[in-house]
Each structure stands twice: as C-alpha cells, then as structure tokens.
Amino acid sequence: MKGIIFNVLEDMVVEQLGMEVWNELLQSHTPEGRVYVSVKNYDAGELFAMANGVALRLNMPLQDVVKAFGQFLFKGLADRHLDVVERFTDFTSLVMGIHDVIHLEVNKLYQDPSLPTISCRISRPGHIEMNYNSPRKLCLCAEGLLFGAAEYFDQAINITHAVCMHKGAQQCILHIEVADE
C-alpha cells in the first residue's frame, strides 16, 4: 500500500480525532518510528490495524470507518493530484475513466502501486455497473471513494453492492445510480 494512502489517513485522524490519537495508532499498530513517505510501499496490514483502532475508539463498525475513509480519501487524493481530477467534467466521466485515465496516471506517478482491477460500463442511462477485484478486498473504501467523487462533483448517487468478495464472490459488483447530471 502506498504511503500516500497513509498520509491521507493521518490527515483524517488528526482532523477528526487529533494528533494524539494518530500518535497512539502509530505506536500501537506500526513498527517503532514509522513515518509514511507517499511514494513508498507499506504493509496493508498496518492500514487495516489502524482502521480497526479507529473503529474501536469510535465504537463504530469497521465497515463504516473504511467507507468514511474512502470518502475522505477522494478529497485527499484530488487535492494532491488536482490536474488528474480536472480532466473530468462530471462524476460519470470520472468513474468511466478510472481504468484508462486515473489508474494510468497512478502507474506513471508511483512504482508498483498494486491497484485493484476495476471495469465500468453504463448499463443504462444514469446507471453505472462497476466490477471491482482486489486481494485486499477494499470494496468499501471504493464505495467511499465514489461518494467522495460524487460530493466533489455535487452529484447525488446511490450505490447497491449486493455481490461482494466479503460474501464469497470472485469480485464485487457495484451498481451506481446517478441522479440527473
């Protein structure tokens, strides 16, 4: 997992819970002296452990924390890579460009980014079907990212996520309903 993901997690925890909580998470769930550098790779287990620490601290289900982080993550990544986000005119164009534009740019910027496999198609007007597959099974984070993108473009969406890797499926299928753009 790239350090930039941990950098945005730090931003979220510090903003919402304070620096003391971030330092406690680092001390409890990472090797001593851990500092995250955006372009370096780190064990995804550290992210899961810290997310679980946040969930326990807030007495929230882990799934809700991961989804909230995904939503926050979109803004954090967009702020750091505004030139990529500005290539899209609306929410639908961004979602449809995940594979061919966004992941292409991520591969240019970061060595070995370990991206999920995502494909999207417009199933009918106002409806996007997203197929998501990743060994890390961060589909709930992907949902949050979608809500973050919708918020960025001031777009109302609804997501149905009935087929899920967490329920034994080979991949997740997310149905995204987009209100009139």
Describe the structure.
- The protein is α+β, with helices and mostly antiparallel strands and 181 residues long.
- Helices cover 53% and strands 16% of the residues.
- It has eight helices and four strands.
- Strands 1-2-4-3 form a four-stranded antiparallel sheet.
- Strand 3 and strand 4 form a beta hairpin.
- Helix 1 crosses helix 2, helix 3 packs across helix 4 and helix 4 (62-80) crosses helix 8.
- The longest helix is centred in the middle third of the chain and has 19 residues, at 62-80.
Backbone structural class: alpha+beta
Rounded mean pLDDT score = 94
Radius of gyration: 16 Å
Beta-strand percentage range:
15-25%
* Number of distinct helices: 8
Taking pLDDT < 50 over at least 5 consecutive residues as the criterion, the unreliable ranges are: none
* H-E string: HHHHHHHEEHEE
Shape: globular
Strand order of the largest sheet: 1-2-4-3
Ends apart, CA distance between termini: 34 Å
Blueprint (SSEs and pairs):
Blueprint: H1 3-17, H2 19-29, H3 44-58, H4 62-80, H5 82-85, H6 91-96, H7 98-109, E1 117-124, E2 127-133, H8 139-152, E3 157-163, E4 172-178
Antiparallel strand pairs: 1-2, 2-4, 3-4
Helix pairs in contact: 1-2, 1-4, 2-3, 3-4, 4-8
